Amino acid sequence: MTRPLDTAALEQIFRTARTHSAWTDRAVEDSVLREIVDLAKMGPTSANCLPARFLFLKSKAAKDRLRPHLSEGNVDKTMAAPVTAIVAYDLEFYERLPEFFPHKPEARGWFAGKPKLIEKTAFRNGSLQGAYFIVAARALGLDCGPMSGFKNAGVDAEFFPDGTVKSNFLCNLGYGDRASLPPRGPRPSFEEIAEIL
C-alpha cells in the first residue's frame, strides 16, 4: 500500500495524459464505466459523504438531449465522443450518512436544514470525486475530455428534473486520437504555486 506507482503508471495517469477533443471509433464497454465508478468512489470525501453522481450518455438519443445545452465549441467533440459523462452532485447526500458514516449517528443532523452547508459540502466533495473519476478513467486506459462549457440549468432540467441532483462538469470519454492533439500547454514551476514551510 505504500509503494510508489511505477513510472509507466504515472505517465499514463498524469505526465503524458492529455485532454482530448478528437476520438477514435473504438467503443467504451459498459463494464469499464462501472469500473471507473467503482474506483472513483473509493477516494476520500469529508464524513464519507460521497455526493457525486455520474450519468453516462452513450446513445445518440441521449446525446441529442444534451446537445442544446452545450456551448457551440463543445458540440462536435461531444457528439463524436463514445461516451459523455455528466459529473453531478446530490444535495440530499446527507440522507445516506447513517449508512456511509455509521460511527457518527448524529452526522445527518450536521447538514439537515442547512442549505448553504449542504451546497458547499456537496459541490466540494463532488468535485473531488470528479477528479478521482478522471484519474480512474485514465488508469483504466481511457482518455478524457473534461469541460464546463454548457448550461447547467438546462442540463439539470433535462436530466435531473427532481432538483436534488446538480450538474458540475461534463467529461467526454473514449480512446483519443493523439494525432490531433496540439502541443501541451505549459505548467507552472513548483516555486510559482507551492511553498514548504
UniProtKB/TrEMBL annotation:
GO MF annotation list: oxidoreductase activity
Keywords, sorted A to Z: Flavoprotein, FMN, NAD, NADP, Oxidoreductase
InterPro entries: Nitroreductase, Nitroreductase-like, Nitroreductase_HadB/RutE, RutE-like
EC number: 1.-.-.-
Keyword presence, Magnesium: no
Nitroreductase domain sequence ranges: 18-157
Required cofactor(s): FMN
Stated family: Belongs to the nitroreductase family. HadB/RutE subfamily.
Protein name stated in the entry: Putative NADH dehydrogenase/NAD(P)H nitroreductase HW532_12395
